[in-house]
Structure formats: C-alpha cells, structure tokens
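Example 9 (inverse folding). The structure is encoded as follows.
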C-alpha cells in the first residue's frame, strides 16, 4: 500500500498533466476554429470568383470593307534649264 505522501505526489503530477493537457486542448480548439474560419473565407472567395467569371462567348468580328486604294499621284517631272551657251 502507498503512503499518503506518495499518493499526494502522484495526485499533484496527475493534476499538472491534466492542466497541461487542458491548455493544449484549448489552444488546439482555438487554432482549429481559426483555420475553419480561413477555410470558409477561402471557399466563399473561390465561389465568388467562379460566379463572376463565366466564360463569355466572343461575338464574331465583322469584316471591314476594303478601302479603295488611291491611285498614286504622278510626280511632276522637274525640267532642268539648259545653260545658255557662252559667247566667246
């Protein structure tokens, strides 16, 4: 049979273990809650993005009528003047 002191020692150890475990559980619960909130936001954002961007069918672009090409304007020929013959 264990003595009173031994039982008290074991009881303190068990209480410490329980306290530590309780703190860990509380912290873990808070962490889980935080992660679930992030997941919910991410899903909402993903759904919103899917709804906003439906694949729109592009309308066929109307072909432009060809513009009549202008005929090139004939350049005026520059006539060089002949030099007058020198008198001797």
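The amino acid assigned to each position is listed next.
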């Amino acid at each position: 049979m264990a003595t009173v002191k031994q039982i008290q020692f074991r009881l303190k150890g068990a209480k410490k273990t329980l306290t530590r475990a309780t703190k860990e559980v509380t912290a873990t619960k808070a962490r889980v809650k935080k992660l679930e909130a992030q997941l919910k936001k991410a899903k909402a954002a993903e759904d919103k993005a899917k709804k906003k961007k439906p694949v729109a069918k592009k309308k066929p672009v109307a072909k432009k009528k060809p513009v009549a090409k202008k005929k090139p304007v004939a350049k005026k020929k520059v006539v060089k003047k002949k030099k007058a013959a020198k008198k001797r």
